[in-house]
């Protein structure tokens, strides 16, 4: 038997990807499954994005190593983008382009954390936060955000978990999995508290262009120079431009930390894929009409499917303000259908109802399931009808 490193013994597989893999396997065996699992738009990126990547290949601009931090035109476009939308001023040298926003987070944690450093993580949280912190030998400290408070944490709740070892806090707005969007005032209070305690703010803003029904996300770095200095912005093209497979994310922040992220990447990934960088350049530099079109489509889907989910027996939901998920408390539904846990209930939905959702345990909320509404309304309706029939059938047995 081969020895497996200690670092691998403290992490678990991503539940979202594990569920997606299970669904794929069942589909290959002929099972009729509607998958509401992966956080992936069902749309395709704009044609100009695809054309830009193809042109870069044909012109032989994308066939060789690029700078580890990413091509300069893309980094400058990212800087210009944040100046345009957030009023933020950065230098291109303060940007590192990475293989998706997930890798941006991973590399940042590897650079800023030492063994035993604590990171405050509001729960529910994206599944990889805790595991990436552990891989950097840090300690994830969970701060529960209650549903009756809109899944938002307060300074008081964070202060209760702060210690002398607290190094950073992760803020994800709009939030995956809840769709919560913090207001400008709420973010400013959280940012000022972090500055007061010399805490790094890891601002995961990957969904911040996808807000609905009059809600609007604010970049926390735009709220003051003091907060900006403590903040590392995490973003990318996966969600807003429907480019999940292109694997382009980025981090913006303090020059010294970015330099070290570049050094680490030079020994791990070398550089992001060339064609993807040229596609991302086209996406970020474009008119942004596509982003608004997609946002409008998802807003319509949310407003269509939310009332249907809200009426499901044993479901308790809070209407999301952004991202593209509904996070439902199904503890009562699990109980009435005879399951010992919501995880078992979610498994029953896949195996018996043919509807795949992600159990909330991996998000730090074991009583919940995450439902992605990135599919057409007719498919969402069929999925909800299947869930309703499943619950009614199990309830009556």
Automatic annotation (TrEMBL):
Keywords: Aminotransferase, Pyridoxal phosphate, Transferase. Coiled coil: none annotated. InterPro entries: Aminotransferase_I/II_large, AspAT/PAT-like, NHTrfase_class1_PyrdxlP-BS, PyrdxlP-dep_Trfase, PyrdxlP-dep_Trfase_major, PyrdxlP-dep_Trfase_small. PROSITE patterns: AA_TRANSFER_CLASS_1. Residues 31-386 form the Aminotransferase class I/classII large domain. GO terms for biological process: amino acid metabolic process. Its cofactor is pyridoxal 5'-phosphate. It comes from the Bacteria. Its EC number is 2.6.1.-. It is an enzyme of class 2 (transferase). This is Aminotransferase. It comes from Jeotgalibaca arthritidis.
């Amino acid at each position: 038997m081969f020895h497996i490193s200690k670092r691998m013994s403290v992490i678990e597989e991503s539940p979202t990807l594990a569920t997606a893999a299970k669904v794929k396997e069942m589909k290959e065996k002929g099972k009729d499954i509607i998958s509401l699992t992966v956080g992936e738009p069902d749309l395709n990126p704009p044609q100009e994005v695809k054309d830009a990547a193809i042109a870069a290949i044909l012109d032989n601009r994308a066939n060789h190593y690029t700078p580890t931090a990413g091509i300069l035109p893309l980094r400058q476009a990212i800087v210009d983008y944040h100046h345009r939308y957030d009023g933020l001023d950065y230098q291109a040298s303060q940007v590192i382009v990475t293989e998706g926003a997930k890798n941006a987070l991973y590399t940042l944690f590897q650079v800023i954390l030492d063994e035993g450093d604590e990171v405050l993580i509001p729960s529910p949280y994206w599944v990889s936060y805790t595991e990436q912190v552990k891989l950097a030998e840090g300690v994830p400290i969970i701060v529960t955000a209650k549903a009756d408070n809109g899944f938002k944490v307060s300074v008081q709740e964070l202060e209760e978990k702060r210690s002398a070892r607290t190094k950073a806090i992760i803020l994800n707005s709009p939030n995956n999995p809840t769709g919560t969007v913090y207001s400008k005032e709420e973010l400013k209070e959280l940012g000022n508290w972090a500055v007061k305690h010399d805490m790094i703010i890891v601002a995961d803003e990957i969904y911040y262009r996808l807000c609905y029904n009059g809600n609007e996300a604010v970049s926390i770095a735009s709220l003051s120079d003091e907060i900006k200095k403590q903040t590392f912005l995490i973003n990318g093209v996966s969600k807003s431009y429907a480019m999940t497979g292109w694997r382009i994310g980025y981090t913006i922040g303090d020059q010294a930390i970015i330099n070290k992220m570049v050094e680490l990447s030079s020994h791990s990934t070398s550089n992001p894929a060339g064609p993807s960088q040229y596609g991302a350049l086209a996406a970020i530099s474009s008119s942004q009409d596509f982003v608004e079109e997609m946002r409008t489509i998802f807003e319509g889907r949310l407003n269509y499917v939310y009332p249907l989910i809200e009426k499901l027996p044993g479901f308790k939901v809070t209407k999301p303000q952004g991202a593209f998920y509904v996070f439902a408390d199904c503890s009562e539904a699990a109980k009435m259908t005879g399951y010992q846990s919501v995880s078992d209930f979610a498994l029953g939905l896949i195996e018996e109802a043919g509807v795949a959702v992600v159990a909330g345990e991996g998000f730090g909320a074991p009583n919940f399931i995450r439902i992605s509404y990135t599919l057409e309304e007719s498919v969402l309706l069929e999925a909800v009808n299947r869930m309703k029939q499943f619950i009614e059938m199990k309830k009556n047995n």
